[in-house]
Write a structure and sequence with these properties.
The complex is a heterodimer of chains A (412) and B (469). Chain A has 412 residues and is α/β, with parallel strands linked by helices. In chain A, 33% of the residues lie in helices and 13% in strands. By secondary structure, chain B is mainly α. Classes of the chains: A alpha/beta (412), B mainly alpha (469). At the A-B interface, helix 4, strand 7, helix 6 and helix 7 of A face helix 13, helix 20, helix 21, helix 24 and helix 25 of B.
Chain lengths: 412, 469
């Protein structure tokens, strides 16, 4: 994007900033859009969070591996990874051999591993456990997600759900003051019209956008209208962004990499976007796990590494934080199908210029299992709390409804 | 919708058969509602005929299906066999979509789709068109039959054995995948079993193998020891576990609740009291699903304003409503492909939980895909659909010419005329004003007139009301 284009965007966005949210006109209106990146400390106003959901239950024990523990080989007679190929974090812990990029990030002091993350009374249903992680609540029937709630304190902050397949928007983003748009590609995020002339097009667009104006009633019609008006407004703004993004790193040709490249493009466009959500999977490896799991981890590591190199090269190294999570880890002992069944505690990855490099917390004991599952050491809400308070600058108390001791994931 | 709405519903009134009255007359919106929920939408002639026929006749017709089903099946079956032979899943999707469009018994296809979402199995892992077709046939065979039989046969369905790893589950070290989802998603719902029940039940499902294209039971790999599942101890096999599950009090309400959401409402959450009479009927009939569907579709509640437009159209319904209404003679292949973007790729549900439906169908991207697909279907500029779904041709067929006639025609066709006066006025103003708008010089007068009709039709389909089911 040329400097002029960028300036134009900034000024038009700053001007649009006067439009309130309460009237249901959710434009890309950001109070920070016009600000230059401060590249400052954690908690700065323009920090960016990219959440990557590892769908299906990632096998934590074969992701961050306690390779010196004799129990590991016993629990994983066919699935254990050869010690020589494991990427060492320290003298007892290492990364799966496919996580080459993550090993590089660790060298670069940009990778933090939180070990043994979970929550009390772990649930082994994919869907229930995913809801728990996304709402950050153990209560049932919660309709707001933790990121959606956080956005209430960040009014006007552009956020995006980047669809890698055709998955629906995540519960984590529900509850935001304006619906977070889901986007597959910029090209496809446009309303097409067949019009006889420019004037015809304008009239058609006016009717479509007029019908999408909500009068605030309850029920599904209002939901459709709010979704529609958000979408038309977002789509118009996004057409301003330059189409030819030239990344400063080589992205692999995978769905996840494509979505992270789009995130980099949206960051670079200077819209003031701060929250991104992407899903990657399927990690539900009940049988013949080894090749599928290695492949998924390689895709994750390569895509995230390319993304981080790209944004770092554009001066956003210290503004960006990537967080991975999965609904649960898997059973400590492998099953008879060379796979693993549903388990509980598992590690989380955090990537960014401001993370505390290396392993944080304790690896779950391989002998003190609970129904055959690893016990958690860190509650995932401790990680969320640290991110909310220290990174996004949003009160974790308000989002989580309770105080959680911050996980030590940032450089002090 | 607030809980108060659901609480105010009297269960006795709710499930009694609907009879037209002054407060609840048999009108066009009710005909459209029935055609959307019990089929895949209606043509203009069908709407008008349904209005004349009355509720009893139309409900009976949709429940039984029209004549010619056996001939239709006989015509369609060899095509599918061929697709199975060539492992052509893309065309199997189109094949099913054609069945939905053209079957004399659309309700059967619709309920088969319900079951596909219930036993959500994906080609992404199964990788065999033959097995996906086999499962589809199993679902259709029992669609309006007995759930107990469907559930029993499902435990040895080859696609399911691959999808939830039953084929790899061995004595001594069983795989829990199927046992868990059997209880959580297929029969009881979360909270009605323990982790221990799952682990014990998993032992009962060991021993099934797939050899070539056949399912084989290998007694050597089957754990025939004693298991305690949901309080019952015995040497249970798969059949025993299915029986135990169906004896649980939570089974009937779980299925009834799911069908309620599919046929009646996504946004009015039913109270247990509201569903109880249906759960009782379902249980005492030995899980007769067809009877349950009939009770729901004939009921007072079904035709009540409380549940009108309280679902979001599923992508399948969105595209088929359009194609049926426009009486399009289009091939289903491109249509089936477009469903993937809209988020409902047949034979490839996102997970074993199926499509969540409701509000999750709609987000920024899927809404734009829907509006753009509606345009592509009706446009003469997009060759994907063969330009054979033309609103201008349809208007001519029904002799609609004047601006106000055209506006009312499309509003009745797609929304049974049920939109605000303001919306109608805006469309009418556009239609009138469009006469004065400039058009390319090489367009004939007919081109200009046809363009106006197509644009009007597209605008009607982009109305938020059209996203509701």
């Amino acid at each position: 994007m040329t400097a002029n284009r960028r300036d134009f965007l900034k000024s038009s966005l700053a001007g649009a900033g006067l439009i309130g949210w309460s009237c249901g006109a959710p434009l890309f209106v950001s109070r920070t859009a016009a600000a230059v990146p401060s590249a400052g400390k954690a908690g700065a106003k323009d920090t960016i969070l990219v959440v990557i959901e590892l769908t299906g239950g990632n096998d934590g024990l074969n992701t961050v591996i306690p390779f010196n523990d004799p129990e590991y080989s016993k629990l994983r007679p066919t699935l254990r990874q050869p010690t020589a190929q494991i990427k060492k974090i320290n003298d007892h812990l290492g990364l799966h051999p496919s996580l080459t990029g993550f090993a590089e990030l660790l060298q670069d002091n940009a990778l933090c591993v939180v070990q043994g993350v979970g929550y009390p009374n772990p649930n082994q249903s994919h869907f229930r456990s995913m809801d728990i992680w996304q709402t950050a609540s153990l209560a049932e029937n919660v309709s707001e997600g933790w990121l959606g709630k956080a956005l209430k304190s960040l009014p006007g902050t552009p956020s995006f759900h980047l669809k890698s397949n055709n998955e629906p928007a995540p519960l984590a983003l529900d509850g935001a003051p304006a619906r977070v748009p889901s986007i597959k590609t910029l090209e496809e995020f446009q309303l097409q019209l067949a019009a006889a002339s420019g004037a015809d097009k304008k009239e058609q667009r006016d009717i479509i956008e007029g019908a999408a104006r909500s009068n605030g009633g309850p029920g599904l019609l209002d939901f459709v209208q709010r979704t529609a008006s958000n979408t038309y407004a977002s789509s118009r703004r996004l057409q301003e962004i330059g189409k030819n993004y030239q990344p400063k790193a080589t992205y692999p040709d995978t769905a996840l990499a494509g979505q992270l490249k789009l995130a980099a493009q949206l960051i670079d466009a200077g819209l003031g976007a701060r929250l991104f959500y992407v899903a990657h999977g399927n990690f539900d490896t009940h049988s013949t796990q080894a090749p599928a799991h290695a492949n998924l981890l390689a895709q994750l590591s390569e895509a995230v590494t390319a993304f981080f190199k790209d944004v770092a090269a554009r001066g956003h190294r210290d503004r960006v934080l990537v967080m991975t999570f999965s609904e649960f880890g898997r059973r400590a002992k492998e099953n008879g199908s060379r796979g693993t069944d549903h388990g509980s505690a598992a590690p989380m990855f955090l990537i960014g210029g401001k993370v505390k490099p290396g392993a944080v917390g304790e690896h779950p004991s391989l002998t003190k299992l609970e129904m055959g599952n690893l016990q958690h050491h860190t509650d995932f809400r401790q990680v969320y709390a640290a991110i909310l308070d220290k990174w996004l600058g949003v009160s974790s108390m308000e989002v989580l409804g309770a105080e959680f001791k911050h996980a030590a994931i940032f450089k002090s | 919708m607030t809980d108060a709405t659901a609480k105010s519903i009297d269960p006795r009134w709710a499930w009694q058969p609907y009879r037209p009255s002054k407060e609840a007359p048999w009108d066009l919106p009710r005909v459209g509602h029935l055609y959307r929920r019990a089929a895949f939408g209606a043509t203009y002639s069908e709407l008008e005929a349904g209005l004349k026929a009355g509720p009893e006749a139309l409900i009976a017709q949709l429940l039984q299906g029209g004549p010619g089903l056996a001939e239709f099946d006989a015509e369609m079956a060899p095509l599918a066999k061929n697709l199975a032979r060539y492992n052509d899943i893309a065309h199997l999707r189109a094949w099913w979509l054609s069945r939905m469009l053209h079957s004399p018994h659309p309700l059967q296809e619709k309920i088969t789709l319900f079951w596909h979402n219930h036993f959500a199995t994906s080609f992404a892992k199964v990788q065999s068109t033959r097995f996906m077709l086999g499962q589809y046939e199993l679902l259709r065979r029992h669609a309006l039959g007995h759930f107990s039989e469907l559930l029993r046969e499902m435990s040895s369905d080859p696609a399911m054995l691959i999808w939830l790893d039953g084929r790899d589950s061995k004595k001594g070290n069983p795989n829990e995948n199927y046992a868990r989802e059997l209880m959580e998603l297929f029969s009881l719902g979360i909270g009605h079993y323990t982790e221990k029940d799952i682990r014990e039940a998993a032992r009962a499902f060991t021993g099934w193998e797939i050899q070539g294209i056949n399912v084989v039971f290998n007694p050597k790999q089957h754990d025939d020891g004693k298991k305690t599942v949901l309080g019952q101890t015995g040497n249970w096999s798969a059949t025993g576990i299915v029986r135990i599950c169906l004896e649980q009090p939570s089974a009937a309400p779980f299925l009834v609740g799911k069908l309620y959401r599919f046929l009646i409402s996504e946004s009015v959450t039913p109270t247990p009291e509201l569903l109880e009479p249906l759960a009782q009927q379902f249980r005492s009939s030995g899980y007769d699903f067809g009877a349950l569907v009939k009770t729901m579709l004939s009921s007072n509640l079904f035709f009540s304003p409380l549940v009108y437009r309280t679902r979001i159209k599923a992508p399948v319904d969105f595209v088929l409503n359009i194609v049926r209404a426009l009486e399009g003679k289009i091939g289903a292949t491109a249509l089936a492909q477009s469903l993937e973007q809209l988020g409902q790729n047949l034979f490839s549900p996102p997970s074993v939980k199926g499509w969540d439906g409701g509000k999750t169908w709609l987000n920024g991207q899927t809404l734009l895909f829907r509006q753009n697909l509606a345009l592509a279907l009706t446009s003469t500029e997009d060759a994907r659909f063969g330009r054979r779904c033309d609103p201008a041709a349809l208007a001519r067929k029904y002799h609609k010419e004047a601006d106000s006639e055209l506006v009312d025609f499309f509003l009745r066709l797609f929304l049974q005329g049920d939109v605000s006066a303001q919306t109608r006025t805006r469309l009418f103003d556009y239609q009138q004003h469009a006469h004065k708008l400039p058009a390319p010089v090489f367009w004939t007068e007919q081109d200009v007139a046809d363009h106006r009709v197509r644009s009007l039709c597209h605008l009607v389909m982009t109305l938020p009301e059209f996203q509701l089911d």
